Amino acid sequence: MKREKFSSSLAVFLATLGSAIGLGNIWRFPYVTGMNGGGAFLFVYLFCVLLVGIPVMISEFFIGRKTRSNPVIAFEKLGGRKWSIVGYMGIIASLLIMFFYSAVAGWVYSYTFKSLMGKFNGATLESSKDIFINTITNPKGVILWQLTALLVVAIILTMGVKGGIERATKILMPVLFVLILICDIRALTLENSLEGIKFLFAVDFSKLKSSSILTALGLSFFKLSLGVGAMITYASYFTDDDNLMSTSLKVALSDTLISLLAGIAIFPTVFAFKMEPSYGPGLLFITIPLIFSKLPFGNVLLFMFFLLTSIAATTAMLSLVEVPVAYLMEVKKIGRIKSVLMVTCIIALFGSLAALSVEGNVLSNVKLLGKSVFDIFDYLSSNILLPLGGILISAFVGYFVRREEVIIEITNKMRIKNVNPLKIYLLVLKYATPILIGIIFINSIF
Ligand code: PHE
């Protein structure tokens, strides 16, 4: 069976960006930044993107394109049988993420529908909070919308890499960007907006919590789709002549820009309406209806905003689900449609437990180690499996793969003469990335 490929460098960039940009930027980044004190957290986060995220992304691109395989086989080809365990860890992590990610995607889908129905007309802080709580605590509703989101992902994935993933990501990214800009302009013209900007950008390290640094590291992995094998899987479909270094830089920069723009929309609104920035996961859902409430065509804009957020979440889910699907297809020799179906069923099963476990819903009393099912899936993936995957991936490429092999894969195919930037990257990868992740990790666990 011939392996599929993306058709051009632009398609590679947009698909990879489609994986990176998602609920991570629009939902998670603002609320996590809010819960961890704002500017100082942002500072640590940017540091993690630069010294950890980008090197790990280049490494994943290298592993994927060099081997043109799913993560399990990719590690096996480059490092022997025992390394394939990193690939298996990735599959588990991508499923764990999907369990709660699909639940939140379901909330966003339902918000898209609700805004189309005009449910947010004349929204106030109180009504906004009520609608959010009613949405996430209605058992039938959350399951219905979560399954809808999963169905959309499954249908696109059965169409394959070019017809599905590539086509879906191509038009949507630019439109999302424009809409977030509109939100920003509106938020910045609210009363007190400067407070929000100060909160986001003024660095005050005394506001950091002891757990904030691991949280920032986990967020940078989650944001850039790293440590789960998603970028390895996508890179296995990259064109031969794609410039891996510049693609990773472009993706990391654009992704960070979108997160910042989301923050610039949300925090001024938080302060204008006297909400707490540390409100938590509901932050996006409560502030965005307020942003548009008194704007001409506010209804239409609100609908478009949630529609695009649904789409961003969907393109990110494509890459998460593609990890186990590529494994089933290549290792277990199961056809694409059947693989997609199997993986979707598993996610629907565990994912619905996550959706039903949020505060106020029917399974909110089920706690493991004091955490809800939703939080356990989130914690295990973001704070444990992703950073662990990151250490192993960077150490693998930094210490176990021959240097020449990396240099040839990354530069020679492009006939790039100047290999100095690559050498710097290799140094960071060897001496900074795994060690930094290790220190943060060990520090936070003990
Ligand atoms: N990066 C995606 C987001 O921010 C989530 C994701 C994580 C996707 C890991 C793939 C792998 O929403």
From TrEMBL:
<feature type="transmembrane region" description="Helical">
    <location>
        <begin position="251"/>
        <end position="273"/>
    </location>
</feature>
<comment type="similarity">
    <text>Belongs to the sodium:neurotransmitter symporter (SNF) (TC 2.A.22) family.</text>
</comment>
<feature type="transmembrane region" description="Helical">
    <location>
        <begin position="379"/>
        <end position="401"/>
    </location>
</feature>
<feature type="transmembrane region" description="Helical">
    <location>
        <begin position="422"/>
        <end position="442"/>
    </location>
</feature>
<keyword id="KW-0769">Symport</keyword>
<feature type="transmembrane region" description="Helical">
    <location>
        <begin position="171"/>
        <end position="190"/>
    </location>
</feature>
<feature type="transmembrane region" description="Helical">
    <location>
        <begin position="210"/>
        <end position="239"/>
    </location>
</feature>
<dbReference type="GO" id="GO:0016020">
    <property type="term" value="C:membrane"/>
</dbReference>
<feature type="transmembrane region" description="Helical">
    <location>
        <begin position="38"/>
        <end position="64"/>
    </location>
</feature>
<feature type="transmembrane region" description="Helical">
    <location>
        <begin position="142"/>
        <end position="159"/>
    </location>
</feature>
<keyword id="KW-0813">Transport</keyword>
<dbReference type="InterPro" id="IPR047218">
    <property type="entry name" value="YocR/YhdH-like"/>
</dbReference>
<dbReference type="Pfam" id="PF00209">
    <property type="entry name" value="SNF"/>
</dbReference>
<feature type="transmembrane region" description="Helical">
    <location>
        <begin position="300"/>
        <end position="328"/>
    </location>
</feature>
<keyword id="KW-0812">Transmembrane</keyword>
<keyword id="KW-0472">Membrane</keyword>
<feature type="transmembrane region" description="Helical">
    <location>
        <begin position="85"/>
        <end position="109"/>
    </location>
</feature>
<feature type="transmembrane region" description="Helical">
    <location>
        <begin position="340"/>
        <end position="359"/>
    </location>
</feature>
<dbReference type="InterPro" id="IPR037272">
    <property type="entry name" value="SNS_sf"/>
</dbReference>
<protein>
    <recommendedName>
        <fullName>Transporter</fullName>
    </recommendedName>
</protein>
<dbReference type="InterPro" id="IPR000175">
    <property type="entry name" value="Na/ntran_symport"/>
</dbReference>
<dbReference type="GO" id="GO:0015293">
    <property type="term" value="F:symporter activity"/>
</dbReference>
<keyword id="KW-1133">Transmembrane helix</keyword>
